[in-house]
Fold this protein.
Amino acid sequence: MKPLLSRVESKKVDKAAAMLKVLAHPKRLAIVDLLGKEDKMTVTEIYRSLDLPQAIASQHLITLKDRGILSSFKVGTKIYYSLSIPKLLDVIDSLEECCDTM
């Protein structure tokens, strides 16, 4: 077994912490949760579903895409977003379970 200090300072832990920082925003969590229920959605579908201003939704989508959490592709004039890391839904579910017991 690796010493605790070695595990805590690993790149893996640093990457996980950075990912959690990105997901710490309630609107970004809502976007991830929404895209976990749908295969793909346009920006318009996302901001309307979450009742967000388009500019705010776009900023969050860019942040999530830049971190590799979302992927996107263009069809005509529409940009579709989808979840790149489906296992993040397990994290959200686990956090919800923890909150329910508090």
